[in-house]
Design a protein that fits this description.
It is built from 5 helices and 13 strands. With 239 residues, it is α+β, with helices and mostly antiparallel strands.
Length: 239
């Protein structure tokens, strides 16, 4: 969650200073394509970059094209369809990357996106040839949806502001290592252990909450739902 908020905060800060930037979003991917749907990157008018859409030569080439496009006053959103089979890299597959030029009149919209993550309010980000918008999310809103048809055109939709929570049962070395990985994936992390003197649990700076409670009472501290994930990392299989 924090990384998403940081990304949009960077976009806002850059847009205020540079007045224009290019947003690249992976809207769909197939096979072993390095950039998965939802991956994002921004390129400022001076060439500065933030984020990633998978790295490698493909990212380099798309960033260069995006930089050229935002120099054009009439630049508009478009799609890049990339096949990796002949790219010379170790991966294959293909990905579709959306280019969207952000100008100062998009500033309030970017602030709305950042606010959704900061306030943990579910919203739907929509990008299509007409522009970008943020709408109220409904129960049926999918995490990521990309459609493209000859009759209707293309639309990218993403559920934003939703918190993914990882409940890690056990506060040992493996729990600590897993916490570090999950923090990079924007999880809120809760570590639960029945021991009150575990050094690795005390050293866990990635956990949002640390709970010491008998394992028989775990159910009182886990909020079940589609965005809740439980990892069993206890020190004993008999737990």
């Amino acid at each position: 969650m924090q990384h998403q908020a940081d990304f949009w905060a960077h976009c806002i800060h850059t847009l205020k200073r540079k007045h224009r930037l290019a947003l690249l979003v992976v809207v769909e991917s197939q096979g072993s394509s390095p950039g998965k749907a939802g991956a994002k990157m921004v390129i400022a008018a001076d060439g500065a970059r933030f984020g990633t859409i998978g790295g490698g030569q493909v990212e380099h080439d798309l960033a260069a094209q995006a930089l050229d496009l935002i120099q054009q006053p009439d630049s508009c959103s478009r799609l890049f369809c990339v096949r990796h089979d002949g790219s010379g890299q170790v991966w294959g597959g293909r990905q579709t990357v959306l280019y969207y030029p952000c100008a100062l009149n998009d500033l309030s919209l970017l602030q709305d996106i950042q606010g959704a993550f900061q306030q943990k309010q579910a919203r739907q980000l929509v990008i299509d040839p007409e522009g970008m918008s943020v709408n109220k999310a409904i129960a049926e809103t999918r995490e990521i949806l990309f459609t493209d048809s000859a009759n209707v055109g293309w639309t990218y939709q993403e559920l934003i502001g939703v918190v993914k929570t990882a409940y890690i049962i056990g506060g040992g070395h493996v729990s600590l290592a897993l916490s570090q990985v999950l923090a990079l994936l924007d999880f809120d992390i809760v570590v639960i252990d029945l021991r009150d003197a575990v050094q690795t649990m005390q050293d866990n700076k990635f956990a949002k909450r640390k709970i010491i409670v008998p394992y028989s009472e775990i159910n009182q501290h886990i909020n079940a739902g589609k965005q809740a994930y439980v990892f069993i990392m206890t020190h004993s299989h008999q737990t």
